[in-house]
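Follow-up to my earlier ticket, as requested here are the two runs.
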Amino acid sequence: MRRPPLETHLGTGIRTTSASAGRLSHVRWIAGGTGAGKSTLAIILARRHGAVIYRGDLAQHTWLPRCSPRQHPHFHAARDEPPGSLWDSRDPDEACGFAQRVVAETFAFEVEDLLAMPTDRPVLVDWFGNLPSQIAPLLTRPDQAVFLLPTPEFRLAALRSRRSVPVRSLVSWGSGTPEATLAQRLARDELWDAEVRRQAAAHGNTVITMDGGRPATDLADEVAERFRLGTAA
């Protein structure tokens, strides 16, 4: 059965957070596919423009005590799964659908965190789990967000590099057969990227293809201009 678009799973989350758009005008969103260089870009921009980075991969650990089985069934279930189990028990389409449901359930936590942060300087959100339809109600203009999507070759190199770090590899990949797990991740990420492209086109957001053909510092120049960093918002 064809998996429905992400908007099916967002529902009330979009409506209840849209009132916060004006309070988050200092926030810039760096999202997109895995292995696209989001964190590298965020670090460069933060250093150049005195911004604060909000890292979703770290923040999600603080969401665990705030979740409940009734309101966050998929996220709550994931907390008790062993490392890498996402790839052991689901095919790529199921893994993509599961990820969509998790980000839909936890988006309110992210917004709560951002609303609690100081507003005296820009905040850069570095998080795979933000999609265009999810954050659209929080933007005062489309260029507050960019979505980085890697070419297959760029992503493959990035994921293989991550596997070389033992602790990170165990948490993200588990103990499954390396090449089989890699194939599942790549297939899941292709589905995710396709959804990002579809939604970004619908909401007028910028998508940047990452192929390794330009220095990260040059990309930071482009994104800083789009984000209007260093100028009046």
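Run two:
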Amino acid sequence: MSLKGINAYKKGSLKQDVANADPHKLTLMLYQGALDRIAYAKGAMGRNDYVQKSEYITRASSILIHLRDTLDLDVGGEISENLFALYNYMINLLTEAHVQNNQNALDEVSSLLTPIRDAWLEIPAEAKEEAYRMQREKKQAL
């Protein structure tokens, strides 16, 4: 099978995963996608492939911007505010990594994002269900 066919299969599989995912799984997929793009950018940087480096850093930044911009600061309080600031910091580090070809900045973003992803994995099922129930009720009240 050609690489083009494999990539088409992966895209179709990803679309299927997204369509069937709950909000918790979607957020987890975003975290993992950002970490993957950072790793790919680091590899491209090591090969002096600046086009690929730029593409992967841009994609990782876009994911972090989305995560930052979808925080509910009213409901999340201090935790949301801290995450907002941390996402901003990571976005700035990615910009630095891109402009200065700084692999250490990529490593720092990965080291900050990995524990968040890991903590997200540890959220108990009951807590996820309660959060979704509250979110649905809030939407219905509007």
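The only thing I checked on run two: The mean pLDDT is 86. Let me know what else you need.
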